[in-house]
Specification:
With about 450 residues, the protein is α/β, with parallel strands linked by helices. The chain has 16 helices and eleven strands. The strands form two sheets. Strands 1, 2, 3, 4, 5, 6, 7, 10 and 11 form a nine-stranded mixed beta sheet that branches.
């Protein structure tokens, strides 16, 4: 059995699809009318050194341990460049939580005039920047390692390969460090960093989430958690209901159970620029409806307003790893149309984890109607698409106090524009600061 698994992994490692080329599609693009080039490569320095200190901002680094033992990096920009003599006690704290396959550097990736983290600091806020488990700066644990060996319980139906169906998946094998999905991010990572910042400042925090960071706060609020430490929430292109998303690549991957296949093969870390990702994409890029040359747009939508320097900075810090289980969970949401906890694929394991045969639903309509919410979404977003976002809005607005919910729609924005667009300070961040000042 071990020999068969080893041979399968060798095949996976050497199949020839180069994701770096796909991610660097703008290197060959003339859409900006420039000859700028950038080569994707990891940045040798962390956020505080590479971004904050480079622009003259103070930056503090903390380590926060979750209840399940993950050690997270939490950054803090306590004040702006012109306010070094201003006491942080007078500043309102804000917690920023990033999306999928990136980390907290996404909030300070551009210049002080364009990056939300710097803009908030310069507008008098105490800025806290989270980094979830598995990202480059949050890969430690009190007892586990990212290099833990894979444990395989046995062949399914005693043969390879197998036509995969969720009821065929044996979920008893896993790599311990990577055994999590966004359930754990909402239940452990988010509460840990929010409580830490609250204890440090003594004040309830505003919250800003992008993409997966919005799903985490929606899940927590739906269970009436964190209401004692957070005072408002900003949802940048939220993802919750996903069944009608416009990304054909993502939809196809979910419908053919691609993440489950990777999980079944014994891979539990998904590195977007690693050999497993190369193979995953090679399975779907032959589809004529999917343009893998323009992979960034195929997944997130055709952004309108990114400049080359910002995108090059993005490639220095992203994409980063997530767990395959997290991708399986998101695929379940796409196929099922609702928002629920991770489905273990059989009644026995669901009963073990939840004491019921099906995973519990996150009831988003139960989010307290007094919580101030600012939601902004884009017409070209392939992940947080308009029909699914309207479904979310109907769920939230049905009982929400009208004075406590604001919606901003930007027709030409795609998923990445909300954190990297050159005109986001005028279109998004200005109204956001005004929202914070009202609440």
């Amino acid at each position: 059995m071990a020999r068969i698994l080893y041979l399968i992994k060798l095949v996976v490692l050497f199949l020839g699809f180069n994701l770096h080329k796909a991610l660097s599609w703008r290197n060959q693009s003339s859409m900006y009318g420039t000859d700028d080039r950038c080569n994707p490569s990891p940045h040798p320095l962390g956020m505080c050194q590479s971004q904050a200190a480079a622009f003259g901002y103070p930056c503090e680094e903390y380590k926060v341990t979750t209840e399940d033992g993950y050690i997270l990096s939490l950054k803090r920009i306590p004040y702006g460049r012109a306010d070094s003599n201003t006491s942080t006690e007078a500043r309102q704290p804000i917690l920023l939580f990033h999306g999928l396959m990136v980390d907290g550097v996404s909030w300070v990736m551009s210049t002080p005039q364009q990056s939300l983290g710097f803009i908030l600091a310069d507008n008098g806020f105490d800025v806290w920047i989270a980094n979830s488990r598995g990202t480059n700066s949050s890969r430690n644990h009190t007892s586990l390692s990212t290099k833990d060996p894979v444990v395989i319980s046995g062949l399914i139906n005693n043969k390879f390969p197998i036509e995969l169906h969720r009821n065929h998946v044996d979920y008893s094998f896993f790599q311990a460090y990577w055994d999590w999905s966004f359930d754990e991010l909402a239940s452990y990572d988010l509460p840990a960093v929010a409580q830490f910042a609250y204890d440090k400042t003594g004040k309830k925090l505003h919250y800003v989430g992008h993409s997966l960071g919005t799903l985490m706060i929606l899940a927590a609020f739906s269970e009436h958690k964190l209401l004692d430490v957070l005072r408002s929430a900003v949802l940048l292109c939220p993802i919750a209901y996903l069944s009608r998303m416009k990304s054909k690549l993502t939809l196809l991957a979910a419908r053919i159970f691609l993440a489950e296949t990777v999980y079944w093969l014994g891979f539990h870390e998904f590195n977007p620029v690693g050999p497993v990702a190369h193979t995953v994409l090679s399975q779907i890029c032959d589809n004529p409806e999917i343009n893998c040359y323009d992979l960034f747009s195929a997944v997130a939508g055709p952004d309108c307003c990114l400049n080359t320097s910002t995108f090059c900075a993005f490639l220095e810090h992203a994409p980063q790893s997530t767990s395959v289980k997290n991708l399986v969970h998101l695929s379940q949401l796409i196929r099922n149309g609702g928002v629920s906890r991770y489905d273990y694929g059989n009644t026995r394991d669901n009963m073990k984890h939840y004491n019921q045969p099906r995973p519990p639903v996150y009831n988003l309509s139960s989010i307290p109607n007094h919580v101030p919410i600012f939601l902004t979404h884009g017409g070209e977003d392939f992940l947080g698409d308009v029909p699914d976002t309207r479904h979310l809005l109907r769920t939230l607005v049905r009982k929400h106090d009208s004075d406590n919910i604001e919606v901003l729609y930007v027709p030409d924005y795609a998923h990445a524009d909300f954190v990297m667009a050159y005109n986001a300070p005028q279109l998004i961040y200005g109204p956001m600061v005004e929202f914070f000042e009202r609440h």
